[in-house]
Write a structure and sequence with these properties.
This protein has 53 residues and is mainly α. It has one helix spanning 16-52. It is 70% helix and 0% strand.
């Protein structure tokens, strides 16, 4: 096996304030995507109803 030199790792405390902005951004994108998906589904169903019935 390869020889590895001494490694040191420094752990930093993670606080909620550090990640809350990123989580909010993910949630906002999720809500926007969900809204567009529901709207697209409704449009597809309406088009199916118009053209297939």
């Amino acid at each position: 096996m390869a020889d590895h030199g001494p490694t040191t790792m420094e752990l930093v405390e993670v606080k909620a304030d550090d990640i809350i902005g990123e989580r909010r951004s993910f949630y906002e994108h999720f809500l926007t995507g969900t809204t567009w998906a529901v709207a697209a589904t409704i449009v597809v169903l309406l088009l199916m109803w118009i053209f297939l019935v």
